[in-house]
């Protein structure tokens, strides 16, 4: 290679290296703003800074809500599993009994009142949840069994695990608000406006919720006085 051509090549190579370095600095120094509509993650803690499990996170309104997916509320070791089950309005929920004893599941909630008399195995028909809201579950045989089904009027929802984290994989086009519900929350549901979330450079949005203490575990029929749910059931069943 002639000296003249070598000098031209060396200058061009140096320019490319400098240009690449400058572009790299711009990319590395600029915050990356994810599109909120493509999904967003949340980390929820209680008032003591501890991760809060069983928080239902959902976005409203949902203008492209499809059919509701079926769900399962199991009964394992005398407990409803999961403890909190979020479902879309219109969902069919099966209530298998995985224990070796029979259960008698019921609810008197405004969103859904129903009863599954003493049974084992899997009931022949699922229960349909066609109204949004909180459904509190109990067992007439085992007083300590308490569970929740939270029915939401959207197809975009999730709930936090033991680490207090949940992710909405997308947001509906019409969504204006993200809601947070917990069975022991003090007061109404927490909310965040979607407009406040757009353009954020944080990978996870943090939220604190104040909740009441977890009730002490109680053995079946430990108290001579039934709890409120049991009292309602017995009044309902009395002739």
Overview of the molecule:
The chain has helices spanning 3-29, 194-197, 228-237, and strands at 40-45, 56-60, 71-72, 74-75, 80-81, 84-88, 91-94, 103-108, 113-119, 127-129, 133-139, 146-152, 157-159, 165-168, 177-181, 190-193, 204-208. By secondary structure, the protein is of the alpha+beta class. A five-stranded mixed sheet has the order 6-12-11-8-9, covered by helices on one side.
Brief write-up:
The chain is α+β, with helices and mostly antiparallel strands and about 240 residues long.
In terms of topology, how is this protein built?
Layout: H1 3-29, E1 40-45, E2 56-60, E3 71-72, E4 74-75, E5 80-81, E6 84-88, E7 91-94, E8 103-108, E9 113-119, E10 127-129, E11 133-139, E12 146-152, E13 157-159, E14 165-168, E15 177-181, E16 190-193, H2 194-197, E17 204-208, H3 228-237
Task: Write out key terms for the chains shown.
single chain; 239 residues; alpha+beta; five-stranded mixed sheet; four-stranded antiparallel sheet; 3 helices
- Percent range for β-strand residues: 25-35%
Kindly provide the radius of gyration, computed on alpha-carbon positions and rounded to a whole number of angstroms: 26 Å
Give the helix tally.
Answer: 3
Shape: globular
pLDDT < 50 runs, ≥5 residues? 4-35, 220-225
Strand order of the largest sheet: 6-12-11-8-9
Question: Averaging pLDDT over every residue, what do you get?
Answer: 82
The major pleated sheet works out as: 5 strands, mixed
Terminal CA distance reads: 106 Å
Derived structural class: alpha+beta
Work out the number of β strands: 17
Helix content: 10-25%
Helices and strands, in order, run as: HEEEEEEEEEEEEEEEEHEH
